[in-house]
Write a structure and sequence with these properties.
Layout (H helix, E strand, L loop, with lengths): L1 H17 L3 H4 L2 H25 L4 H26 L7 H29 L1 H8 L2 H13 L5 H25 L1 H7 L1
Length: 181
Amino acid sequence: KSLLGTLLAFGGVALVVFGGNAKEHGSLVANGMVLKSAVIWAVSTVMSKPLVGKAHPLALLTLSMPGALPLLIYYGGPNVAALDWGALSLTAWSMFLYVSLIAGVAGFAFFYEGVRQVGASAAMSYQYLVSPMAVIFGMIFLRSTVTPIQVAGMVTVLGGVMLANRVRRQMSSPQTAEVTA
């Protein structure tokens, strides 16, 4: 049942990503890349589980960076090389530092600490909430419209995450161990 909840949540993410207004939310290729990144993130989270108890979360984050570096250089290298760094405003530098230090380093360090504490599958299931939250923040800050398919996807994600977590809690509770013993 936990796998069913996870698959349900993933299906909801697909509805959220592909169910939007194409003119407003980008191309099918870009949306497909978002969905693929969710799959890669989920797989990498599960694969990192054996390392979480053996290494500090910040060390795990640091060790994951060389794998991403070739893609970052390929896709972002030319733009970074052409950028006039001296012309950036204080606001731009502040945003860069926030994204790299707070959202990047601190966010991932806390995430890996969460993986250590609650387990990879529980932490991964909460990752499915990113797409619905992106839609909600898009509505609030960008005045994006939400389609009925996206609403159905958000409900599906929430249902899948709740199902997976409920099953996980039931399996780990002491009462379940007594009943099955």
